[in-house]
Design brief:
GO terms for molecular function: kinase activity; methylisocitrate lyase activity. Pfam families: PEP_mutase. The chain is of the alpha/beta class. It folds into two domains: 5-247, Phosphoenolpyruvate-binding domains (TIM Barrel, Alpha-Beta Barrel), CATH 3.20.20; 266-306, no CATH class. Helix content is 47%, strand content 11%. Strands 1-2-3-4-5-6-7-8 form an eight-stranded parallel barrel, surrounded by eight helices. Helix 5 (95-107) packs across helix 6 (135-152) and helix 6 runs parallel beside helix 8. The longest helix is centred in the C-terminal third of the chain and has 20 residues, at 242-261. The protein is globular, with a radius of gyration of 20 Å. Alpha-methylisocitric acid binds next to helix 3.
Length: 306
Amino acid sequence: MAQLKGAAQLRKYLADPDKIVVCPGVHDGLTARMALNVGFDALYMTGAGTAASRLGQPDLGLTTVDDMATNAGMIAGLDRNVPVIADADTGFGGPLMVARTTEKYILQGVAAFHIEDQVTTKRCGHLRGKELVDVNTYCARIRAAAAARKEMGSDIMIIARTDSLQSLGYEEAVRRLKAAVEAGADVAFLEGMTTKEDMANVVKDMAPTPCFLNMVSGGVTPLVNADEAKRMGYKIVIWPLAGMTAVYLGMRDFCRELKSTGEIKERYTEDGKIDGGVGDCFELCGLSKCGEFDQMVGGTSFAKGA
Ligand SMILES: C[C@](O)(C(=O)O)[C@H](CC(=O)O)C(=O)O
């Protein structure tokens, strides 16, 4: 099958010794467009944000593979030059299901995805009480993903995530990540780290496998900026709640304002233009480009402007 560009681009970034890929978390078309507009190298499709925005539910393994894959595919399709790294939770079932999940993510044009070792009734990696599958079940998930990738002739990257630090400790978590790399994973993701010591050590212990860092606002892992993550040796850092928290804060304020005053006052830019109005939102989503395309192919929808 024809290779989509995302995975190849992400592989190039990872091969660059000077680069760390910083990804804002996005969960829908608008948050993805906002991030693309700012010019990030790659985006992260958050499972927590997908559950919250699509289902209005917490991150408890309630999304189906189709909720996640179609969301990831829509986001990946907005700009094929920008790789999308997507959450794939536990792979959504046994090895056969993980293979199907991998196939779906490949067909949706996802560049990389992570699979973890929690039970299918999983929860956010920063909550207490996570339960795990055994290491063989975990490795079968990773092998299933790698086999499906091979079968499809794809270069999608597989990120092995382990949630075992919380209950089994650092040594076992690293053993699991090493077993996952042996089973075909390209990148290691130690979830729920609580100390900078573990954050620095895992990069050294997993070398030469590139490591992935998860910066969750209000989570258990100490937050570090991109420079510090790079100095520690990380190759990818995600801020999964960038979009979700922005929507949470922004929508909360707008709703409070409307409820208490009966209106939402315009916001203005420094040069006096309305900021974030309907025109800005449509333009962000490609209104002008739609008009240009329509005209180019001889359509008439925009003959009278828009
Ligand atoms: C990275 C993550 O898998 C996500 O869904 O974005 C979550 C983030 C969160 O729920 O805070 C996780 O860390 O489990």
